[in-house]
Amino acid sequence: xxxxxxxxxxxxxxxxxxxxxxxxxxxxxxxxxxxxxxxxxxxxxxxxxxxxxxxxxxxxxxxxxxxxxxxxxxxxxxxxxxxxxxxxxxxxxxxxxxxxxxxxxxxxxxxxxxxxxxxxxxxxxxxxxxxxxxxxxxxxxxxxxxxxxxxxxxxxxxxxxxxxxxxxxxxxxxxxxxxxxxxxxxxxxxxxxxxxxxxxxxxxxxxxxxxxxxxxxxxxxxxxxxxxxxxxxxxxxxxxxxxxxxxxxxxxxxxxxxxxxxxxxxxxxxxxxxxxxxxxxxxxxxxxxxxxxxxxxxxxxxxxxxxxxxxxxxxxxxxxxxxxxxxxxxxxxxxxxxxxxxxxxxxxxxxxxxxxxxxxxxxxxxxxxxxxxxxxxxxxxxxxxxxxxxxxxxxxxxxxxxxxxxxxxxxxxxxxxxxxxxxxxxxxxxxxxxxxxxxxxxxxxxxxxxxxxxxxxxxxxxxxxxxxxxxxxxxxxxxxxxxxxxxxxxxxxxxxxxxxxxxxxxxxxxxxxxxxxxxxxxxxxxxxxxxxxxxxxxxxxxxxxxxxxxxxxxxxxxxxxxxxxxxxxxxxxxxxxxxxxxxxxxxxxxxxxxx
Length: 595
What we know:
Strand content: 15-25%
């Protein structure tokens, strides 16, 4: 039997589980693993500037392509705690990433050794499993089980903590005979699907709510096929955006109290049946007024996690199933019903949804200086085509972007949905661009999100990872400022100051252009609306030429209130800005405004 260190065995397993890229930061307690990584070859490593950044890079890498599992690596103690936010973000959105940490020697774990911390206990609540391996011979089994857990059922992250002496201990392990464990995913039965479709057929105004589970299951084509067979309009959630193209006649828009379309909310409130697939009924989608969301509607909920069914409200019928397995049966049964002439004509309901899509529009075309953010998204729609992958996390920038941008393919809106940590966008975009360097990547940040982990731009410069980053700067914590309106507050949300080194900025404070250039990237500052489109075109050229991140900073008016509900009620969304009343007000909308 071949002998090798436990660290080398772990590296060999990573390769056989399909890992090609890892992100991390080396250090004393994890150096034996890094030595094995170098000796074993076959895995490309990207050095992060912050260990939390490495975890978000791993997330972006996983989210970009079906089957990917991002790996992040760090030394002991603070590296592990730094990656907790990435693990929380991953488990919240059902994203499998593997976090590997170094640790003090086994004999020193309870002696308050330097940088020794019980990271497995800390990570437990935000992982599917977190293990400190105390016996070197267990390393192969722990890694094998980690990949099984990450892929089985509801996907999610795993942490493996390796004491330094465990890494260095030689064990007997034959990589050539290694096999991944079979993956378990619950599957719907024919009887369950027939009952669900029976409920759909009894309705007059049905909708499908398409969640991120459909994208995770790589089942978007099946979703579209089922929707087309039955003539059922689709409401994508924020995590499911892209499962059906925005310009598809059955895309009815998004619903919610923030990241929603006026027409999406209006159509949902007219519905009488909702089939949710791979979604969580998240509060930004449903609002907190669940009676408004549920009243007068029959609900069927399909989710891979059995305990998710009934967590927010009790559906009329629940099915524990992987989205792809369920949709395969939905399509099969629907085809049989169509052949038998038993599917009703939904054309009038579909037409009504499309009519709302052409009339209930928000205005995007403004010529104001400083810029209104709506104009930025309008020009992004012009500059960045349907092949673009958008990456963003939280804030008014994300909310307005989701209201006004367009997404046409699965995994082309890569968004940290539930956790929403500031600073996520830059490292996640680097992970996405690493996973698929051929597809254009455009990140979107407000100034505060951008400043949280901007040091990771140097990773893009060092490793030649090009993408375009749109930075909308109002020198404000805009979402928190808007949330404080109900409390009559404007407290500790102002970021403005007069920069003594860049007086031309006025009160906008941080000179992002200088910082970005200092990190080895390119930057363009835009102050007038007619400069936006040329700047985006120039950014694409600079990214292609120099193979580095290129940031376009748009200087916004200090205060813009973005449409959202003040009462967490999807029927009560406040439109703070002017609505579109003529086609020129929303020139890049999916449907030309009908007046």
